Amino acid sequence: MYDLLARQAQEQPDAAAMRYGDLTWTWAQLGDRVGRGAAALRAAGLTPGDHVATLDFNHPSWLEISLACAQTGVANVLVNFRLAPA
User: Fold this and answer.
1) What is the spatial distance between Cα 68 and Cα 65, in angstroms, rounded to a whole number?
2) What residues have CB less than 8 Å from 44, skipping those under 6 apart?
3) Local confidence pLDDT in tens for the 86 residues of the chain
4) Domains (ranges, CATH) in the chain?
5) What is the pTM of this model?
6) Can you spell out the DSSP letters for the chain?
7) Distance in angstroms (rounded) separating the CA atoms of residues 4 and 2
8) Cβ pair 34, 2 in contact under 8 A
9) Nearest to residue 12, comparing CAs of 36, 33, 30?
10) 26, HSE (Cβ side, Cα atoms, 13 Å)
11) What are the contacts of 48-53 at 24+ separation with CB within 8 A?
């Protein structure tokens, strides 16, 4: 998945990568956000093979953290927010 993002960011950086409501991210913006997320994971000491659980709403941030995990070799497990206590 991360290779697809890198290729798209290189080939068409200004094209829309995703839309959410009134917001739009270009491939370049998405690639930048994913790269910064991956750097944050490494700075936190996570290494390939580690696991991250993410509790999130149905939001583009889930895709960003999933791709950042893929870039660093960290396994991401999405926990649906409906499974959390009120």
Assistant:
1) 5
2) none
3) 778 888 999 999 999 999 999 999 999 999 999 999 999 999 999 999 999 998 877 788 888 999 999 999 999 988 877 776 66
4) 2-83 (3.40.50.980)
5) 0.84
6) -HHHHHHHHHH-TTSEEEEETTEEEEHHHHHHHHHHHHHHHHHTT--TT-EEEEEE-SSHHHHHHHHHHHHHT-EEEEEEGGGS--
7) 5
8) yes
9) 30
10) 10
11) 48/72, 48/73, 48/74, 49/73, 49/74, 49/75, 50/74, 50/75, 51/75, 51/76, 51/77, 52/76, 52/77, 53/77, 53/79
Structure-block tokens of residue 63: 């895709």
Q: Which amino acid makes up residue 80?
A: N
Residue tagged 């583009």 (tokens)? 60
